[in-house]
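ENTRY TYPE: protein
CONTENTS: sequence, structure tokens:
***
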Amino acid sequence: MIVDAGHEGCFGRLFPPGDAAALGRAVEEMARLGRDRPDEVDAMRIRAAAVARRYSDRAMAERYEELYESILHAPGRPAESSCRMIGR
């Protein structure tokens, strides 16, 4: 999947959804770039893979879990037992 990460040219080429002509131009440009500057395409591939790992389902779930744990153990938060008593 390709998404707009806000860095045109950093990870590849962007094109408007549904615009087949723009997609074709982007593919041609990347093919030319791969032929003329393979080192640049390799760098894009490495950057894109790093972003994909950072925002993978697993990575996001781990960060949310860390956030929830920090909230649960934040100073001043009522103890769990007192929360149970409130609902009674």
Residues 20-86 form one domain.
